[in-house]
Amino acid sequence: xxxxxxxxxxxxxxxxxxxxxxxxxxxxxxxxxxxxxxxxxxxxxxxxxxxxxxxxxxxxxxxxxxxxxxxxxxxxxxxxxxxxxxxxxxxxxxxxxxxxxxxxxxxxxxxxxxxxxxxxxxxxxxxxxxxxxxxxxxxxxxxxxxxxxxxxxxxxxxxxxxxxxxxxxxxxxxxxxxxxxxxxxxxxxxxxxxxxxxxxxxxxxxxxxxxxxxxxxxxxxxxxxxxxxxxxxxxxxxx
Length: 239
Known about the structure:
This protein has helices spanning 15-27, 38-45, 64-74, 89-97, 110-128, 162-172, 181-188, 199-214; strands at 7-11, 31-35, 52-56, 80-84, 102-105, 136-139, 142-145, 150-153, 156-158, 179-180, 221-224, 228-231. It has 239 residues and is of the alpha/beta class.
């Protein structure tokens, strides 16, 4: 029997998803409590918060977005993952702006979900107990904390999902090298082989937007038409 690894709340109005995640996450050693909607979950959370929450977006009585608002108000550190059947970018971005840490679109790979959960638990633990010598990558004005999956640009934090961080790391660790969509897909989704390579285009758009929110002049994620993408370093001014 795996050792207890943390308490996870699964909030979804689909019984089949609740049952699947109870079995899969329970098999990984997590203590899982499931709820049919946000209102039921919020009532339980008044007695104590979980260590991580997995929320469906569309639910009766209280949807995942409202539940995320309340959870984030109660705890800034609680890892939150959205499950969504909506494919519009607006809904994903809205959820992340509310303070979610990551999202997966239905149907999703349970292997991928378990991998994201493990990363988020590891990141939360490292925030509480930072390593004496953190592993990091520095490229120009960018710093990537490879243990905590955190990124900074020109000294300011970038709020990246696990997938966005993996994608950025894949590009930045080899500046100037072109990465195909298939190569980026393999690094961004190592546990899931059923994602369309065009998903990378959406992630790149969001990456650029997040960099531009910090630095409007940002232009270092370059599209190489017909091939893929690359990270190029900003030209240095002559001394």
